[in-house]
Specification:
Distance between the termini of chain A: 30 Å
CATH architecture of chain A: Sandwich
Shape of chain B: globular
Oligomer: heterodimer
Order of helices and strands of chain A: HHEEEEEEEE
Strand order of the largest sheet of chain A: 1-8-7-4-5
Helix content of chain A: 10-25%
InterPro entries (chain A): SoxY (IPR032711), SoxY_sf (IPR038162), Sulphur_oxidation_SoxY (IPR016568), TAT_signal (IPR006311)
Pfam families (chain A): SoxY (PF13501)
Largest interface: A-B, 34 and 62 residues
Radius of gyration of chain A: 18 Å
Distance between the termini of chain B: 29 Å
Shape of chain A: globular
Number of strands of chain A: 8
CATH architecture of the largest domain in chain B: 4-Layer Sandwich
Strand content of chain A: 25-35%
Largest sheet of chain A: 5 strands, mixed
CATH class of the largest domain in chain B: Alpha Beta
Protein name (chain A): Thiosulfate oxidation carrier protein SoxY
CATH class of chain A: Mainly Beta
Largest sheet of chain B: 6 strands, mixed
CATH topology of the largest domain in chain B: Purple Acid Phosphatase, chain A, domain 2
CATH superfamily of the largest domain in chain B: Metallo-dependent phosphatases
Helix content of chain B: 25-40%
CATH topology of chain A: Immunoglobulin-like
Low-confidence stretches of chain B: 1-32
């Protein structure tokens, strides 16, 4: 028999990572938002969050945030055990209020960005990133 | 005849649009019982620009049979919308008569008997004749290849795509985009792309390390045709490293990259493009969604999901055109571009009836030259189908080809359960037809065809079915990968396509005992086309060949193991 130990291990790891789908929102994420906004209402618009719809590799997912005029942008992976990804602060001399990074996602979940604007208001953008086994493209 | 309702839909959207297509002719031809090459090609040249679209050839250089799907479910907003309409409903929508050539070409009913009446379809030498005829009308027509070209046959596998490249180059395409080509691996795909005498496009093909546009593939190319400045933007298959083995081309990253598509459209418009064409391998529903969100695209030539539609679908200001697969169709799209904008469109989906369209002798000779070194292997007869057994693949759930492949895996690999990928390529075999080695490779050939044998828990099997189910039935097209449901043998299940991921699949049953699948228990599973690196096992085409050789005559029994609800 051509039983492959390596395959089985690979599949088993995949199983461990994918049994709960999608990942639930971690309560710590809500706490972190409340801390950042002080409980203020969040509007929409003026903040662009660019993330893939389906992650090519959940261990390194490229994302980009951009909010002209923002003083800070908070990025959260809502379903990760540790939801905080990054907080980008922009000083008055910053040429552009945008940043890109790569994040690790434990499973399918929403990635949320919240920007604090110069007038103290907040805007929010959200994007669902799917983490999948894949393998059946037509 | 073209239905009045459709004509109104199309004409209201763009008042300058003239005569939606030559499609109505087919029904008339059926009544006349006469089908000629001239009639198939009949087209009153329109406007000042012609596009010729062919896509998803899957290396089918020779004429084949190809049965369209019986089950092609649309989810959410796509429910009941084209292309998620099949059979009699499809014929009614387009006013196609039962038993007509168009019924044979576009729907599944009575396939075996209609196939005997109308013969094989496709063949790149016939396609060459059609392309040449269109170029005789409009010498500077653009020929655009939507990809999935260098994959899917014995000769393509053994020449690593060179046979198809040689034949396609003879047709002189102007641009191409990509999907399965990448499964040749980075080195080979790079070598072939660098050899091409035409543009290789993909605005969404990025360098994985730097997340910047790939240097090998350009986002778009300008053409000056008919006095018009045309921009063709490429859109490769977005989910290559997910649906196919990413380890074979780790240097590349894809994705839909809608924001970059908008940026490219804006860029080409700013540079003076009078018409913007997207050559896409997104899949039809993804293209529809993109057409509604990205502004400034005139025409999307859509590939990947293998849909063949006799009319364009209009989304906002964008026409989406689906041109089938396996060399079965060519779309001709004539555009009237004036004052820097599209004023009208005329379209015809031309079916390549192999017995009606004369082969181009030069391309026939070229195809024969590619096949010559392999011809003994190709033609060896392995078995035959029973007099009532049709082998086909297309459909959201099991096709009879897949049932046969799953049977081969269970029997040859001594497994409880078999899994076979839900791909949409692979020609059909008629009842009472010989099955050659070439036929088996046409439905199995790939660069990662090892047939693994492993153990999976019942829980993991459920996760796999849920995961693939969501790739197909997620209501948001941007989360769909465009294949069909993974095919299973030895396992029954119930699927509610309206439910969210994790809740669609229930009642999983081990068919050989009738017992419910136990989440905690291990089952021996045989499958193929794993995207994992290092997968071991015999090649799937050898497994299937051994099985068919033992059977001699292949019988087909109705597959009732998947219960679909919510459709």
């Amino acid at each position: 028999m051509d039983f492959s130990r390596r395959d089985t291990l690979g599949l088993a790891l995949g199983a461990a990572a994918l049994t709960v789908l999608p990942f639930r929102v971690n309560a710590a994420a809500e706490d972190r938002i409340a801390e950042f906004t002080g409980g203020a209402d969040m509007g929409e618009g003026g903040l662009t969050l660019t993330a893939p719809e389906i992650a090519e590799n959940g261990n390194t997912v490229p994302i980009e945030v951009s909010a002209p005029g923002a003083t800070a942008i908070l990025v959260l992976a809502m379903g990760n055990p540790t939801p905080g990804v990054a907080q980008f602060n922009f000083g008055p001399l910053a040429a552009a209020q945008s940043a890109s990074t790569r994040i690790r996602l434990a499973g399918t979940q929403d990635v949320v960005a919240i920007a604090k604007m110069a007038d103290g208001s907040f805007v929010k953008a959200s994007s669902t990133v799917k983490v999948t086994i894949g393998g059946c493209g037509g | 005849m073209i239905s009045r309702r459709d004509f109104l839909q199309v004409s209201m959207a763009a008042s300058a649009l003239v005569g939606a297509s030559g499609f109505g002719n087919w029904s008339r031809l059926a009544a006349q019982q006469a089908l000629t090459q001239d009639q198939l090609l009949e087209f009153d040249t329109f406007g000042n620009l012609t596009l010729i679209h062919i896509t998803d050839i899957h290396a089918q250089l020779m004429p084949i049979y190809f049965r369209e799907p019986e089950v092609n479910l649309g989810i959410g907003a796509a429910k009941g919308q084209m292309p998620h309409v099949t059979g009699a409903d499809f014929r009614r929508f387009y006013g196609i008569e039962d038993g007509s050539p168009s019924a044979y070409a576009l729907t599944y009913n009575d396939f075996s008997s209609l196939a005997r009446a109308y013969g094989r379809v496709g063949g790149m030498d016939r396609v060459a004749t059609v392309v040449n005829a269109i170029r005789a009308d409009r010498p500077d027509a653009l020929l655009l290849d939507g990809g999935d070209t260098w994959h899917g046959s014995y000769t393509c596998f053994h020449t690593e795509g060179q046979d198809v490249v040689n034949v396609m180059n003879a047709l002189k395409p102007d641009a191409m985009t990509f999907h399965w080509e990448f499964t040749l691996g980075t080195d080979r795909v790079t070598e072939l792309v660098e050899s091409l005498p035409f543009a290789s496009l993909g605005q969404n093909i990025f360098d994985a390390e730097w997340d910047e546009p790939s240097e090998l593939f350009k986002p778009y190319k300008f053409f000056e045709r008919g006095g018009v400045k045309v921009a063709v933007i490429g859109q490769a298959f977005p989910y290559m490293p997910i649906a196919n083995p990413g380890w074979m081309f780790p240097e590349f990253s894809f994705g839909i990259r809608e924001e970059n598509m908008q940026a490219m459209v804006d860029e080409v418009r700013a540079e003076g493009a009078e018409v913007v064409v997207v050559l896409s391998h997104n899949g039809f529903d993804v293209d529809k969604k993109m057409a509604g969100r990205v502004t400034g695209i005139d025409v999307i030539l859509s590939g990947h999901t293998h849909d063949a539609l006799p009319e364009p679908v209009l989304v906002e200001q964008t026409y989406v055109i689906a041109s089938g697969s396996n060399g079965k169709f060519v779309s001709r799209v004539d555009l009237d571009i004036r004052d820097g904008r599209m004023m009208g469109l005329k379209h015809k989906l031309i079916p390549i009836f192999s017995d009606v369209i004369a082969p181009d002798p030069q391309v026939t000779a070229l195809i024969n030259a590619q096949r010559e070194p392999h011809v003994d292997q190709l033609r060896e007869v392995i078995g035959r189908t029973a007099d009532d057994a049709l082998l086909y693949r297309r459909g959201n759930f099991n096709g009879t080809w897949d049932d046969l492949i799953c049977d081969a895996l269970i029997s040859e690999r001594d497994a409880d359960i078999a899994m076979s990928p839900g791909v949409r390529w692979g020609p059909s075999i008629l009842p009472g037809q010989e099955i050659t080695r070439e036929d088996i490779w046409n439905v199995t050939s790939m660069s990662y065809g090892a047939a693994y044998r492993t153990e999976m828990t019942g829980e993991f099997l459920h996760v796999v079915l849920e995961d693939v189910g969501d790739n197909l039935f997620n209501p948001d097209p941007y989360y769909q990968q465009g294949g069909d449901m993974v095919r299973v043998g030895g396992l029954g299940y119930r699927i509610d396509v309206t439910k969210p991921q994790g809740e669609r699949i229930s009642d999983m049953t081990l068919l050989k005992t009738g017992e419910k699948i136990d989440p905690a228990k291990n089952y021996v599973v045989a499958g193929w086309a794993s995207v994992n690196e290092g997968t071991e096992g015999p090649q799937i085409w050898d497994v299937v060949e051994n099985h068919i050789r033992k059977l001699g005559t292949v019988n087909v029994t109705p597959n009732t193991s998947v219960e679909v609800v919510g459709a």
